[in-house]
Structure formats: C-alpha cells, structure tokens
C-alpha cells in the first residue's frame, strides 16, 4: 500500500511535481523567526523520548487533546511521557482536516522513517522506533538542524538576555549553522502589564545603572540593541495586539512612564500614547542599525483566566482579535517613511480578514534599492496551514509580487518542525503548478523554478543580509 507521506504528497499536477522535485526540494532553509532554545542548541541536547522533543511545549497538540476531553494531567501535567504520547496517539486520527495530521506524519516520516499511521494501535510501535533512534548522537539538536539543511536560525530573545549560548555556539567550529539572536523588547513596550515595573528593574540591573525616567529606558534599550548587534542580531520582533496610533510627545511619554513605575493607574489613551511613541522610537532605532523589523499583530492571549493562573502563558489559550488595522498601520509606516527612517519591515496578521489590508499597505512604502522592502509575512499561527498559506500567497500575488516574498519560517519551539518548510514548498509548487496547468502561467520551468527557489531561500538570504 502506498505510504500516506509519499514523494508527490499534496502535489496535484505534473508541473507542481517538476517544480518541487527539480527546484524546491533541496534548497537550504533560512529560518528567520523561531522560538527554539539557544541553550538546547549550545548544549547539543539529547532527548530522552519522543514526547520530550515532540509534545512538550506544543500548544497546537495540547488544544487538540483538550478538544477531545483528555485530562490536563496527561497534557501538561505530571503524567509520565509514555502515557502522554499514548493519549496523543489516540487523538491523531481525529485531527484529519487539521494541519496537525499532516505535520504529525511528515515529522514521523522524515525524522524517524515511520510509515504507519499513528493511532492507538500503532502507538507502542512508533514509541519504540522513535525512542531507539533518539538515543543516537544523530538525534541531538545540532545534528537534527544539520540534517534538516538549515543554514541560518534566528531565535527570539529578550533585551535582558546575556546571549551567552549564542556566543558558545559561535565558538563551536564543528557546527556550521548560524544561530543568531532576534531582539524582542515587548516587555518594555507593554506599559500597562503588571510585570512592567519589575521588568524595568531587571533591565536596569543588566545595564548597571538606574532607570528612573523615560530617557533612561530609551538609552537602556538602545544600549542593549547595540549589544545584540555585536552578537550578530539583524532582526527585531514584536508580538502586539494592535498598531497604536495616538499622537504623543516625548514629554507626554515621559510622564506616562513616571506614572507606570510609581504604580499609578493610567488611562487607555495614555497607554496608547506611550506605545505609539515607543514603537516609533524602536522603528527609528532598527533603521539606524539596518535591521529588519517584524511585527506580529492580532493575537489576544491568555483568554482562559483559570488556566492562565494554573498553567501560565503560551499554553494554548490564545485566539484571533478583531480590530481596525488599516488606518493605524498606514499612519505608523508613513510617519517613519516621512522621516526616511522606515526599516525593512515584515508584517504578519493573525486575522485573515486583514490580508488585503496588509497586501495593499505594503505597496505604499516600497523603496528603491531593496527588493520587497515591506513584506507581507507568511501565514502565521492559526493561518500556518494549507488554506492559510494558499490564502496568504495568492492574496500577495494578486496585490503585490509573490516573486519577492521572503518565504517560510518555522515559528516553533520544536526541533522537528523543519518539515513545515517542506510543507510550505509543496503548497507553493502546487499553487504555481496549478497556474501552469490552467494556462495562467507559462510552462517555462526555468523561469518558474528560479522564482520557487527565490521564495524558498534566496530572497531571505538577500533580504536579511546575514553573512
């Protein structure tokens, strides 16, 4: 019987098969945004079992397990790893139609050569086969990265991070993949968050001086950005609910900061003012460093209060926010552009209703000398699936230039998620191959193959200019 994951998986035309196998398949990976642990990479972590590398921290799987009524003790609790894996195996057949079904079997096939479908009956066989391989040195983190053909990984790091693991990786001459930090200063931006004051104190400790006024904060952020730059960082990132657009002077921002660190309550308008001024400051800073600014917008997080209080953040209780994006986004980009301080920018939206908003906004701020300076980022989070990827790429193609797209990223905490690049490339080739078969694109495989390779890797390499 033909394997579920076969060589022409999701390739539905002859043109798609040619584009994938002859052009996309063997391109290296430029993973410019992920949440992998630099510590795990530096220490070349060995995983005890398949649950440890596959289920721990994977809120996509956790949400599916909760939907089928699996007890939390067997999802994030203290139940042993084998039981958790068995529970996941029971869930897998019920995920047909969800990207988890494809991702699960792609990862099992590519990393463990598992051809059987995972379910309750096969769980013991799969558990044993995967765990036997995980004991080998080839399944430690660095080898997994190398086997996945990854040239560059950009992790996500807080400004207070010492980056010691990045330095350790850099000194390891036996490991060739570049592992670079990404600057994510959201905790200095979220002025109304309960932990804001504590975070400012931690930042002060790192820069070894008091942060008493807003100017002190801005100087500390700039100092840490320069520290990151010296460590090879060329990309920033923000995960924010909305784009702020409330005019604010520096004096007003300073007064709001003073209220925040003294514990006074601020108005919603004051919060928006602070965020507006701070985000513009950061955009100018990134431009001065020739960095790329990433903005992930539209997630409403930790919606289940009871679960948040017991499990903490990033445990699978987040969803899509509905809000106005067009005016504040264009205003934000325009203000930086007016001052000639708009950095290269990648915009990711969680709500697919904003595809055309972003797809038209990026065309307003392109610039000579940079191909695709303002990017519509790949399908993110809830859009990181076949329909979401097709929507994002076809909307980009309709409104801009698909050929200038910097392509896929992993956005994952798992070392087995590099099959998402394969999945993306197969879907990309199926889209373009479909255009060929319907007569909407020429059957010029060199022309189309070059575009496929650009989107798969080369555009990112040229865009980020990481040497």
Structural description of this entry:
With 467 residues, the protein is α/β, with parallel strands linked by helices. The protein has two domains: 14-40 and 147-464, TIM Barrel, CATH 3.20.20.140; 46-139, Orthogonal Bundle (uronate isomerase, domain 2, chain A). 49% of the residues lie in helices and 8% in strands. It has 20 helices and nine strands. The protein has helices at residues 14-24, 38-42, 50-54, 59-67, 81-91, 99-112, 123-134, 141-147, 164-171, 186-189, 196-207, 214-230, 250-261, 268-289, 305-311, 326-338, 355-361, 386-399, 419-437, 445-464; strands at 29-31, 150-154, 178-180, 235-240, 292-297, 299-300, 319-320, 344-349, 374-376. It has a four-stranded parallel sheet, with helices on one face. Strands 1-2-3 form a three-stranded parallel sheet. Strands 6-7 form a two-stranded antiparallel ribbon. α17 (355-361) links the parallel β8 (344-349) and β9 (374-376). The mean pLDDT is 97.
How would you classify the helix and strand content by structural class?
alpha/beta
Tell me about the largest β-sheet.
Answer: 4 strands, parallel
Count up the helices: 20
Number of strands: 9
Order of helices and strands: HEHHHHHHHEHEHHHEHHEEHEHEHEHHH
Total domain units:
2
The CATH class of the largest domain, by name, is Alpha Beta
From the spread of the alpha carbons, the general shape counts as globular
The CATH homologous superfamily of the largest domain is termed Metal-dependent hydrolases
Low-confidence stretches: none
Radius of gyration: 23 Å
Side by side, the strands of the main sheet go 4-5-8-9
Helix proportion range:
40-55%
CATH architecture of the largest domain: Alpha-Beta Barrel
Mean pLDDT: 97
The proportion of strand residues reads: 5-15%
Q: Kindly report how far apart the N and C termini lie.
A: 46 Å
Quaternary state of the chains: single chain
CATH-assigned fold name of the largest domain: TIM Barrel
């Amino acid at each position: 019987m033909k394997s579920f994951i076969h060589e022409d998986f999701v390739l539905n035309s002859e043109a798609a098969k040619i584009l994938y196998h002859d052009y996309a398949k063997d391109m290296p990976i430029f993973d410019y945004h992920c949440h992998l642990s630099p510590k795990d990479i530096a220490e070349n972590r060995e995983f005890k079992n398949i649950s440890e590398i596959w289920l721990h921290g994977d809120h996509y799987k956790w949400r599916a397990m909760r939907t089928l009524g699996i007890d939390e003790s067997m999802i994030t609790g203290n139940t042993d790893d084998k039981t958790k894996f068995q529970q996941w195996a029971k869930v897998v057949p019920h995920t047909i139609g969800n990207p988890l079904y494809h991702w699960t079997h792609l990862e099992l096939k590519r990393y463990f050569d598992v051809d059987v479908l995972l379910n309750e009956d096969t769980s013991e066989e799969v558990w044993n086969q995967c765990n036997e391989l995980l004991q080998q040195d080839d399944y430690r983190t660095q080898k997994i990265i190398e086997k996945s053909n990854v040239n560059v990984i950009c992790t996500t790091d807080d400004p207070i991070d010492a980056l010691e693991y990045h330095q350790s990786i850099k000194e390891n001459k036996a490991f060739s993949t570049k592992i670079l930090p990404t600057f994510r200063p959201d905790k200095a931006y979220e002025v109304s968050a309960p932990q804001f004051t504590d975070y400012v104190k931690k930042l002060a400790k790192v820069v070894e001086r008091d942060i008493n006024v807003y100017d002190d904060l801005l100087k500390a952020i700039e100092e840490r950005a320069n520290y990151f730059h010296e460590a090879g960082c060329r990309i920033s990132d923000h995960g924010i609910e909305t784009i702020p657009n409330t005019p604010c002077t520096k004096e007003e921002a300073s007064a709001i900061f003073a209220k925040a660190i003294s514990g006074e309550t601020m108005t919603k308008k004051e919060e928006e003012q602070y965020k507006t001024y701070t985000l513009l400051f950061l955009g100018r800073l990134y431009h001065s460093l020739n960095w790329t600014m990433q903005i992930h917008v539209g997630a409403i997080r930790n919606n289940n209060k009871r679960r948040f209080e017991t499990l903490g953040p990033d445990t699978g209780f987040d969803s899509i926010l509905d809000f106005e994006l067009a005016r504040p986004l264009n205003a934000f980009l325009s203000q930086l552009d007016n001052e000639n301080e708009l950095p290269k920018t990648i915009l990711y939206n969680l709500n697919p209703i904003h595809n055309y908003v972003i797809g038209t906004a990026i065309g307003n701020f392109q610039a000579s000398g940079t191909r695709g300076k303002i990017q519509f980022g790949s399908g993110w989070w809830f859009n990181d699936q076949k329909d979401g990827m097709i929507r994002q790429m076809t909307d980009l193609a309709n409104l801009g230039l698909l050929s200038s797209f910097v392509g896929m990223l992993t956005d994952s905490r798992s070392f087995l998620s590099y099959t998402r690049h394969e999945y993306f490339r197969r879907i990309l080739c199926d889209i373009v191959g479909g255009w060929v078969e319907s007569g909407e694109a020429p059957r010029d495989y060199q022309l189309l193959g070059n575009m496929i390779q650009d989107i798969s890797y080369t555009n990112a390499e040229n865009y980020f200019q990481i040497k």
